[in-house]
Structure formats: C-alpha cells, structure tokens
Amino acid sequence: MITLSPLKRRILYVTVFELIAIISSTFILMKLSGGEAAESLPVAVMVSFAAVVWNFLYNTVFEAWERRKQVTKRTLLIRSVHAFVFEGGLVLICLPIYMIWYDVGLIKAFMLEAALLLFFLVYTFVFTLGFDKIFTLPHHYKTASAP
After folding, report:
1. CA dist., res. 81 & res. 44, Å (int)
2. In contact, 120 and 24? CB cutoff 8 Å
3. Residue 136 above 60 pLDDT?
4. Which of 8, 25, 60, 137 could form a disulfide with 4, with the two C-beta atoms 3.0–4.6 Å apart?
5. Do 10 and 128 meet the contact criterion of CB atoms below 8 Å apart?
6. Taking the mean position of all CA atoms in its chain, how far away is CA 51?
7. What interhelical angle do 76-102 and 37-69 show, nearest 10?
8. CA–CA separation, 63 vs 69, rounded Å?
9. How many angstroms separate the CA atoms of 147 and 131, rounded?
10. Average pLDDT, whole number, for the chain?
C-alpha cells in the first residue's frame, strides 16, 4: 500500500477518478447520442467540471451544516440524504448542459443523465474500492500495522 497525506490523496483521487470518468462518459454519451467523440468529449469535460465544483461547494455547505448542528456521527439517514441531495443538485446542473449541447428535450436529457448516474453508481464503488486498496490514509496504515 502507498500512504499519502490526506490532501495529496484527495487530489490524486479526484484527478484519476475524473480522467477515467471523462473517457468513460465520452463513450457512453457517444453511444446514447449517436454522435462522435468530438461531440461528446466536451460534454463529458463540462459535466466532470460541474461535478467537481458542485462536490466541493455542496460538501463545504454540508460540513458547515454538520458543525452548526453539532452532528458527530453520519448515520445511514444522514448519508442517504447527503447522497440524494447531492445527486439531485447534479442532475439539475447537468440537464441544461445536455439539452443545449445535444439540442434535445427534457426527457432525452434526463435519459442521458440517468444512464450516467447508473454508470457512476457502479464506477464510484469499484474505483473507490481499488483506490483504497492501493492508497491508504496515514491513520489507517498506522492502525493496520500496529502490533
């Protein structure tokens, strides 16, 4: 296992995750839209950028809310609400991008987003599982290696 500082780990995680996501999303969007890579790659980049910015903003606000409410444990309910609100916000951000770029209506844009949501559900799980096997947090490594 490779141990990185939390900041370096986060930067590496986001960079590698988003590079793979952009490539994968390009192919998914090509297939669903019937277009070429040159048409779908810019959309994949825009959506990736939107997701990173939204993730940063949303989690900043969410963690501030947790501090203000003195939440000390993220229960299943809190994690579920967090995930649903995050994804709902991302859908609202991405739908106009698909509608404008592909010149489609709300239903077609939603179908594109739904396909990508399903892909990202699986991709995020698999990527994070693999990433955590390779790159551990310093405090996890110390716990795991303690006698």
Report:
1. 26
2. no
3. yes
4. 8
5. no
6. 6
7. 150
8. 10
9. 25
10. 91
